[in-house]
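Reviewers of the previous submission asked for a worked example of the structure-prediction workflow described in the proposal, so we include one complete record here. The input consisted solely of the amino acid sequence. No template or homolog information was supplied to the procedure at any stage.
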Amino acid sequence: MALQLIKGIAPYWYTPKSFEKEEIKPEIQLNPLTQQQLACVLNDSTNGPNGIVPSPQARQYLLNTGVKDWRNVLDADGKEIQFSAALLPMLPWNVQIDIATQLIYDAMLGEEQSKNSPSQSMSAATPSDLIATTANGEDTATTQTQPQ
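From that input alone, the workflow returned the following structure tokens.
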């Protein structure tokens, strides 16, 4: 069998979990990480009590690399604002962590597993099952939980 390169996953629109029940949902266009980009993030991470914790620089790299656009995001005056990577640090902290978590989840799961994950018994049911947030909510950790 020949060596086959990993295929990327196409960009897609993602609604942060804290806004899923809103009437007008903000949507963030995510461009999944390559394996090399994931390795850079994991290289700039430490082991925390709940798994791997990306540094603040790694988390910012995740956002700058993985977020390509947004819709229904409002400025401080309540007006829709055009996407700019320079504004990513202005997103609420919990939304930054949510996006970073989703990007890591996608990269670790990979394209094949992503397509087939609902039917795989060992796959995590949700990103939060695969990627844990530390107890104080400051960092994103990456650790596989065991199915129950």
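The CA atoms of residues 117 and 123 lie 6 Å apart. We consider this example representative of the routine output the project will generate in years two and three.
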